[in-house]
Protein backbone atom coordinates (compact mmCIF):
# COMPACT_ATOMS: atom_id res chain seq x y z
CA UNK A 1 0.00 0.00 0.00
CA UNK A 2 1.20 3.48 -0.86
CA UNK A 3 -0.24 6.94 -0.36
CA UNK A 4 1.87 9.68 -1.90
CA UNK A 5 1.03 13.30 -1.15
CA UNK A 6 2.12 16.31 -3.15
CA UNK A 7 1.30 19.98 -3.48
CA UNK A 8 2.54 21.37 -0.21
CA UNK A 9 4.69 24.46 0.01
CA UNK A 10 4.95 28.03 1.21
CA UNK A 11 1.99 30.35 0.65
CA UNK A 12 1.04 33.78 1.93
CA UNK A 13 -1.96 34.25 4.22
CA UNK A 14 -5.14 34.40 2.16
CA UNK A 15 -3.62 32.27 -0.55
CA UNK A 16 -4.53 28.83 -1.88
CA UNK A 17 -2.94 25.43 -2.32
CA UNK A 18 -4.16 22.15 -3.72
CA UNK A 19 -2.89 18.95 -2.19
CA UNK A 20 -3.03 15.66 -4.08
CA UNK A 21 -2.66 12.10 -2.89
CA UNK A 22 -2.19 9.16 -5.24
CA UNK A 23 -3.07 5.77 -3.77
CA UNK A 24 -2.05 2.27 -4.75
CA UNK A 25 -2.12 -1.24 -3.35
CA UNK A 26 -5.73 -1.34 -2.20
CA UNK A 27 -9.22 -0.82 -3.64
CA UNK A 28 -9.39 2.95 -3.63
CA UNK A 29 -13.03 3.27 -4.67
CA UNK A 30 -14.34 1.34 -1.65
CA UNK A 31 -12.41 3.29 0.97
CA UNK A 32 -13.04 6.47 2.88
CA UNK A 33 -10.25 8.91 2.07
CA UNK A 34 -9.19 11.70 4.34
CA UNK A 35 -6.74 14.35 5.38
CA UNK A 36 -5.34 15.08 8.80
CA UNK A 37 -2.68 17.53 9.87
CA UNK A 38 -0.12 17.89 12.60
CA UNK A 39 1.78 20.85 13.92
CA UNK A 40 5.21 19.74 15.15
CA UNK A 41 5.00 18.99 18.84
CA UNK A 42 1.21 18.80 18.83
CA UNK A 43 -1.37 16.10 18.22
CA UNK A 44 -3.13 15.12 15.04
CA UNK A 45 -6.05 17.25 13.91
CA UNK A 46 -8.66 15.75 11.64
CA UNK A 47 -9.28 17.93 8.57
CA UNK A 48 -11.68 16.18 6.21
CA UNK A 49 -13.04 12.88 4.92
CA UNK A 50 -14.76 11.82 1.74
CA UNK A 51 -16.74 8.60 1.69
CA UNK A 52 -16.91 6.18 -1.23
CA UNK A 53 -20.23 7.72 -2.31
CA UNK A 54 -18.66 11.20 -2.42
CA UNK A 55 -20.15 12.52 0.82
CA UNK A 56 -17.81 15.03 2.42
CA UNK A 57 -17.16 16.06 6.01
CA UNK A 58 -14.91 18.72 7.52
CA UNK A 59 -13.39 19.74 10.79
CA UNK A 60 -14.71 22.96 12.28
CA UNK A 61 -11.51 24.89 11.66
CA UNK A 62 -11.62 24.41 7.88
CA UNK A 63 -15.33 24.49 7.03
CA UNK A 64 -16.00 26.90 4.18
CA UNK A 65 -12.33 27.18 3.25
CA UNK A 66 -11.21 23.65 2.31
CA UNK A 67 -12.78 21.27 -0.20
CA UNK A 68 -12.04 17.56 -0.47
CA UNK A 69 -12.68 15.61 -3.66
CA UNK A 70 -11.75 12.28 -5.19
CA UNK A 71 -11.18 10.82 -8.64
CA UNK A 72 -11.65 7.08 -8.48
CA UNK A 73 -10.39 6.63 -12.04
CA UNK A 74 -7.06 8.13 -10.98
CA UNK A 75 -6.97 6.69 -7.45
CA UNK A 76 -6.44 10.25 -6.26
CA UNK A 77 -7.87 12.41 -3.51
CA UNK A 78 -7.47 16.17 -3.43
CA UNK A 79 -7.68 18.90 -0.82
CA UNK A 80 -8.28 22.39 -2.16
CA UNK A 81 -7.29 24.87 0.51
CA UNK A 82 -8.42 28.49 0.15
CA UNK A 83 -8.18 31.53 2.41
CA UNK A 84 -5.22 29.97 4.16
CA UNK A 85 -4.26 31.22 7.61
CA UNK A 86 -0.97 30.97 9.51
CA UNK A 87 -2.65 28.49 11.84
CA UNK A 88 -3.11 26.13 8.88
CA UNK A 89 0.65 25.59 8.89
CA UNK A 90 1.24 21.88 9.49
CA UNK A 91 2.25 18.58 7.97
CA UNK A 92 -0.74 17.28 6.04
CA UNK A 93 -1.28 13.53 5.83
CA UNK A 94 -3.44 11.63 3.40
CA UNK A 95 -5.08 8.51 4.79
CA UNK A 96 -7.51 5.75 3.89
CA UNK A 97 -9.89 3.63 5.92
CA UNK A 98 -12.69 1.10 5.47
CA UNK A 99 -15.30 2.85 7.63
CA UNK A 100 -17.53 5.86 7.13
CA UNK A 101 -16.47 7.96 10.08
CA UNK A 102 -16.17 11.74 10.26
CA UNK A 103 -12.89 11.55 12.09
CA UNK A 104 -9.58 9.76 12.31
CA UNK A 105 -10.18 6.08 11.55
CA UNK A 106 -7.70 4.93 8.95
CA UNK A 107 -5.73 1.83 8.07
CA UNK A 108 -3.28 3.44 5.69
CA UNK A 109 -1.29 6.67 5.91
CA UNK A 110 0.93 8.71 3.63
CA UNK A 111 4.24 10.28 4.59
CA UNK A 112 2.89 13.81 4.67
CA UNK A 113 3.46 17.07 2.86
CA UNK A 114 4.40 20.34 4.54
CA UNK A 115 2.20 23.39 4.23
CA UNK A 116 3.57 26.70 5.51
CA UNK A 117 1.39 29.80 5.59
CA UNK A 118 3.50 32.86 6.21
CA UNK A 119 4.16 36.32 4.85
Describe what you observe in this structure:
- The chain has strands at residues 2-6, 9-11, 17-24, 32-38, 44-50, 56-58, 66-71, 76-81, 90-97, 108-109, 113-117.
- The chain is mostly beta strands and 119 residues long.
- The strands form 2 sheets. Strands 2, 4, 5, 6, 9, 10 and 11 form a 7-stranded mixed β-sheet that branches.
- A hairpin with a 5-residue loop joins strand 5 and strand 6 (56-58).
- It starts with a strand and ends with a strand.
- The mean pLDDT is 96.
Report Rg: 13 Å
State the helicity in percent bands.
Answer: under 10%
> Sheet bearing the most strands, described?
7 strands, mixed
Task: Give the DSSP E fraction (strand runs of 2 or more residues).
Answer: over 45%
| Structure summary, number of beta strands | 11
Whole-number average pLDDT?
A: 96
What structural class do the secondary elements suggest? mainly beta
* Count of discrete alpha- or pi-helical segments spanning 4 or more residues: 0
Amino acid sequence: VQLVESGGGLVQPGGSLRLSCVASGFTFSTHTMGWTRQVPGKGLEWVSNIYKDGSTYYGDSVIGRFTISRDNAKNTVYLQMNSLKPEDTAVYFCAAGPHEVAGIDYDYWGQGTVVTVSS
